[in-house]
Design brief:
By secondary structure, this protein is an all-alpha fold. The chain has 19 helices and 2 strands. The protein is globular and about 70 Å long.
């Protein structure tokens, strides 16, 4: 008669990376005896690599604002509200968003196939293609726009890093700590947007002062602003190779993925994530262009141009608020936090329109920062809901079928990992749609107001969906038992 081997209650912590065969973080004794240290180590290197991915993903949002001055005619006049230049800038800044969204699904599935350690090395290394390519072609003034569109698409590889990193960290942490861990991991990546939008304009300005305030000086500045990331990419590859671990238990099975992809909650949460993360990343990419196009007088204030017209502040506050969203969802109700967030986002959008209408930059900036803070909170609360939903459904199925609860919970983790990839991809694609709505609004109405009215209505609708699926007790309890008790 065969015996079932008991789950491990400890693990020997090692600094060097390895494959780990037995991982049992939900066992408190295991977690306190080596598990917590191992998970924290992997989280640190995951955050670093993901941060660089976001940095390269969003680099075009800042580069396009300087390319007109660097001698590229298709972006000339951007600071004067030239409609064609604004249109081209939004195409270049939105292309990485779309490619990054498309890559998020295969990047999620790559973790079970190749292991978190190996795939982090690969995904970091892929960032060398768009950076080195941009360094080369920015110094070729006759380069047509389609070449830069291709390079912008390659920058989308950085956007795919999010899903592989989140899916990997999801396996390392116990249920009660996933919200905070995933929030920290995501925030570390999101901060890459802020640091790029802060440092790239600073370095471009430095380059023009070193050379001259002409097209050549701007090309030199852009070159420096891109080259600065290369050493950090190499460090991320080395750190993952030497220190990160892969979990053999983080394997895919067809049943789990099929259940995740056919589960209505995967698609409901994907739609809600369009509202939170799609808004964060879409506005992060578009914010520098919006400021330069709608408030051209800021160019007369020297330090504002050096700091990228303060566009980095949006991504910064949105990134910093994301862990708070995950933390408060751990403590309270993720669905309630998400509902309140969408209500606040609708109000913030109305304030943004008021700032645009009055040409009042302080009001515009403050309202946008409020919107970014709320997107960060919503990102954390929605992502916290994902593993709890699948855990609740797994417990329900186990109680109905008599299946062993341990196996059901393992399947729930795998389903959540698959769902994270889909939800992340749809959310990022929402960022591309958001930017295209801005572009079409500018092209057809010569105003951004119609686009913002659409966003406000969309946030109200998404708040209603959150209430319908996860707060209406009669519905939520019948469809997803235990959600009310699982802090979702």
């Amino acid at each position: 008669m065969s015996t079932v081997e008991a789950p491990p209650t400890s693990i020997t912590y090692q600094r060097r990376g390895r494959w780990i065969n037995d991982w049992n973080p939900d066992n408190n004794e295991f977690w306190e005896n080596g598990g917590k240290q191992t998970a924290r180590k992997n989280l640190i290197f995951s955050v670093f690599a993901e941060n660089l991915g976001f940095s390269i993903w969003v680099i075009w949002a800042s580069v396009v604002t300087a390319m007109g001055s660097a001698g590229f005619d298709f972006l000339a006049g951007l600071g004067k509200g030239n409609a064609t230049a604004v249109d081209n800038a939004l195409w270049l800044s939105s292309t990485p968003t779309l490619v990054g969204a498309a890559l998020r699904i295969p990047y999620t599935f790559a973790i079970p196939r190749f292991g978190g350690r190996n795939f982090t090395i690969f995904s970091a290394g892929m960032l060398l293609l768009p950076t080195l390519g941009l360094v080369w072609f920015i110094n070729e003034p006759g380069t047509p726009m389609w070449v830069f569109m291709l390079l912008a698409a390659l920058a989308g590889f950085g956007g795919g890093n999010f899903s592989s990193s989140m899916a990997n960290i999801n396996f390392f942490y116990p249920e009660g700590k996933k919200g905070t861990a995933l929030g920290i991991n995501a925030a570390g990546g999101n901060l890459g947007v802020a640091q790029t939008q802060l440092f790239v304009p600073l370095i471009i300005t430095l380059g023009t002062h070193i050379m001259a305030k002409d097209a050549g000086g701007y090309r030199f500045g852009i070159t420096l602003a891109v080259l600065v990331w290369i050493p950090f990419i190499l460090i991320a590859m080395f750190g993952a190779l030497r220190y990160m671990d892969s979990l053999s238990g983080a394997k895919s099975d067809g049943t789990s993925y099929k259940r995740a992809l056919t589960n209505q909650h995967t698609w409901v949460m994907a739609l809600l994530y369009v509202g939170t993360f799609g808004s964060f990343i879409g506005f992060s990419f578009a914010f520098p262009t919006l400021i330069k196009a709608d408030f051209p007088s800021l160019a007369k204030i020297g330090w504002m141009g050096t700091l990228g017209n303060l566009a980095f502040l949006g991504a910064l506050v949105g990134s910093m608020s994301r862990p708070f969203g995950g933390w408060v969802a751990d403590k309270l109700s993720g669905a309630k936090i998400t509902l309140y967030t969408f209500g606040g986002m609708a109000i913030a959008t109305l304030l943004i329109m008021a700032g645009l209408s009055a040409k009042n930059f302080p009001l515009f900036l403050i309202a946008f920062l409020l919107l970014f803070v709320l997107t960060g909170i919503g990102n954390g609360s929605t992502y916290r809901m994902i593993p709890m939903i699948f855990t609740a459904e797994a417990r329900r199925r186990a109680s109905e079928t008599g299946d062993e609860i341990g196996a059901a919970l393992i399947s729930a983790k795998r389903q959540a990992g698959a769902a994270i990839g889909v939800i992340g991809a749809v959310g990022a694609a929402g960022g591309w749609v958001l930017q295209q709505v801005l572009r079409l609004s500018n092209e057809n109405y010569h105003s951004m107001s119609p686009a913002f009215w659409g966003y406000a209505v969309t946030y109200v609708v998404m708040g209603a969906l959150t209430w319908w699926f996860y707060l209406r007790s009669s519905f939520a309890t019948d469809r997803v038992p235990s959600l009310a008790h699982a802090n979702v």
